[in-house]
Amino acid sequence: MAATHALEATELVKTYPAGRKKPPLRALDGLTFAVPEGVVLGLLGPNGAGKSTTVKILTTLSRADSGTARVAGYDVAKQQDAVRRAIGYVPQKSSSDPMATGVENLVLSGRIFGLSRQDAVRRAAELLERFDLTESADRQVRTYSGGMQRKLDVALGLVHRPRVLFLDEPTTGLDPEARADLWNEVGRLAGTEGLTVLLTTHYLEEADRLAGQLAIVDRGKVVAEGSPEALKAELRGDSVHVELVDPDADGTVQRLLSGLPGLGEIVVEGNTLRARVDRGATAVPAVLGALEEKAIPVSAVTVSRPSLDDVYLRYTGRSFKSAEKNAGNEEGRAA
Ligand SMILES: Nc1ncnc2c1ncn2[C@@H]1O[C@H](COP(=O)(O)OP(=O)(O)OP(=O)(O)O)[C@@H](O)[C@H]1O
């Protein structure tokens, strides 16, 4: 069945019980997005934003309280078997058997998906080649590096030739080189093989690099959607970041700068001040002058083109870093 969209989520709501006498936690609060075939969709959000809950619903491991979702054209609530056949799922934790070899893991997985022994062996060889693991095919997986294990995990998700692949935080814990290697592999899968990929991540750089389309998730909702380039291009002008020597405890800096012309979206978090300006070259002297006049010491200033962090800030009112930091302490969102 040809799908207009390979992935489609409409107004998904999911609540979890939050314990005695507490209102239920609203993990998804009307989450909506749509992705055409062959695109890498990045679901970007801090811990607790609702990414894993979304993936669980789309892979039929969990049910939404309300709303609908379709994967490869199939309804996740009503056509679960068809959805399961159409998807590959690479969980955060490896599903390979560390005591078995790479090729044994792949062949077993192929057999579970119903391939004949001969087809499973052929598919395993193809995938080992594809992920540059042929030389290590006969070694136990426990001897693999982190990057090799992750590549094998992705290969395991592809054994049955799915149309949509789910990657849950695929590069967490990998060193920069292994991360870049996996980024190349994933980019190739979508680019040359027409696979649709849903990738969850809390790395801004990963989202920027890999996602053809990005959905920024915050508190159970998609707050912004588009290609990373388009989202950044919507923010005109420059970003100014000022590191203050002391935190702006009483809001003096915020008030002071709010009065300056040409400065918008001023956010002060601890020692860091961020603002959007039409032109960095003219705004910086004005900002520094105003701070100096009030004897507020500054340790560093940078001017840059808008980043995804600025996009996040624009739509949520907080920086990505502070949202990550606070995610663990948050009381949760009452339903
Ligand atoms: N089984 C559960 N029972 C109760 N609360 C849950 C359950 N699963 C998730 N939650 C809560 O729902 C919210 C969304 O969680 P979810 O795991 O979807 O977020 P996430 O964006 O994937 O974060 P992470 O990057 O940490 O996996 C969080 O506040 C989380 O604590």
UniProtKB/TrEMBL annotation:
Originating species: Kribbella qitaiheensis
UniProt keywords, alphabetically: ATP-binding, Nucleotide-binding, Transport
Main location: membrane
Membrane disposition: Peripheral membrane protein
InterPro entries xref list: AAA+_ATPase, ABC_transporter-like_ATP-bd, ABC_transporter-like_CS, DrrA, DrrA1/2-like_C, P-loop_NTPase
GO biological process: daunorubicin transport; doxorubicin transport
The protein, known as: ATP-binding cassette domain-containing protein
Superkingdom classification of source: Bacteria
